[in-house]
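W.,

You were right to be curious about this one. When I first looked at the sequence I had no strong expectations either way, so I just let the prediction run and decided to look at it fresh. Below is the sequence, 176 residues in total, followed by the output.
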Amino acid sequence: MNRLKSNALTVSIVFVLLVLAVVGFFLIPFRSDNALQVSFLNYTNDAALGKLAVFSVTNVSNEKISFGLYQSQIKTSGQWSKQAYRSYESGLPPIIIDLSPHKAATFINIAVTNGNVWRVPVDWCYATPHPIESFRGNLVENTYWNSKFLLEGKPLHFTSGPVFKDHITYSPELKK
């Protein structure tokens, strides 16, 4: 009887460790979510565009990062405006920049001068997807879509490929 209890205890411990390993695999990030830092440098003036805000973007990771800029968000009644990518129609062209490890770049943005608090969202991802993050992303995406296909009676479809995890970092809040 003791031997049976010992085997049951061993199996239980192995099962718990296996469950913890699987949970850790899906929940523990393999890279930092804070690898890009945005800071305000100063204001400057341009004859055509008016008052401009100058920002610095720093890659504090050991890997290359790609980033793009959204249009400024304005805070009114405690709520931030919807995020929208920069476009030629907005007055500032879209920008996507690759930033090497431990390097910095500067960008300008038209300053919001109506007295509201504002900030600039920066969308970024690691330039090279992490293999395990890609596997997890594909697993989640395939599970999501194939569960819908099953409910609709459609054939299953599996995809694979690199998965880039997007991050949003915000500039400091400004008011002027």
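Here's what jumped out at me. The two ends are 78 Å apart (CA to CA). And, maybe more interesting for your project: DSSP finds two helices and eleven strands in the chain.

Coffee later to discuss?

I.
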